[in-house]
Amino acid sequence: MPLTLLVGSYSVQATDTFKARKGEQGFYGPHETYNPNVEEYTWVEKNAKLPPFPEDDNLIEFEVNSANPRFRYFIDAKSVSYTKEDGVVRYTVVVRSRSGANNVAFEGMRCSTKEYKTYAFGNGKGEFVQPRRSEWRPIIKNVNTLYRDNLADFYFCNPNIVNVTAERIVRELKYPTTEARELGLH
Questions:
Q1: Within a 13 Å sphere around the CA of 115, how many CA atoms are in the beta-carbon half?
Q2: According to a count of CB atoms within 10 Å of the terminal CB, is the N or C end of the chain lower?
Q3: 144-179 tens-digit pLDDT
Q4: What pLDDT, in 10s, does the model give residues 100-114?
Q5: Residues 100, 185: contact at Cβ < 8 Å?
Q6: DSSP 2
Q7: Which residues have CB under 8 Å from 13's CB, separation 6+?
Q8: Quick check: 51 and 106 in contact, CB under 8 A?
């Protein structure tokens, strides 16, 4: 899975493919319907553009259910994108400790397979750098990464969100649905 990160031109290339057969998880893309004549679906990730490094004015804080109380969680509103062709939501997340230290990552999320990918990390100097490995991984629930599961369930992959767009996702983050509020989020 080659990944090219060109910080100067803000470009990320990915050539990851996904194949599935009927009945397997991920067989249908995010906007596909059943076609009995199709036996195989090949998923191809589209190129992602690396956003500018996040600024505090663009951060939207979101609550994480049962998260580590030492951290606060933010999404950079200007970084949120959704590519209908591959069904990937891309975003910059900022995890801030109570002392003010930031962990910054530019990530992607595939709702159809509930996976995430980290395209770049913040280096502490206001720049993104490429990780050693960038691959799709399952979203797991643990105290340090529960934010991904909550982002998937309530904001990015929520089945109640119709006609997914970046603007719609940002609106959900700013004004969460009843379902998220009932669980104590926001």
A1: 16
A2: N
A3: 889 999 999 888 987 776 678 899 899 989 987 655
A4: 999 999 999 999 899
A5: no
A6: -
A7: 2, 3, 4, 47
A8: yes
DSSP 3-state of 119: strand
**What's the chain's length in residues?**
186
* pTM for this prediction: 0.74
Radius of gyration (Cα) for the chain, nearest Å? Answer: 17
CB contact at 8 A, 135 and 1: yes
Q: How far apart (Å, rounded) are the C-alpha atoms in residues 94 and 105? A: 7
Minimum mean pLDDT range among 17-21, 59-63, 100-104, 132-136: 17-21
* Separation between Cα atoms, residue 30 and residue 129, nearest integer Å: 30
pLDDT of residue 70: 86
Burial track 50-78 (b if 16+ CB lie within 10 A, e otherwise): bbebbeeebbbebbbeebeeebbbbbbbb
In angstroms, the CA 106 to CA 124 distance is 14
**pLDDT band for position 5 (cuts 50, 70, 90):** very low
Spatial neighbors of 117 by CB under 8 A, at least 6 apart, are: 16, 107, 108, 109, 110, 134, 135, 136, 137
Residue with tokens 């999404």: 75
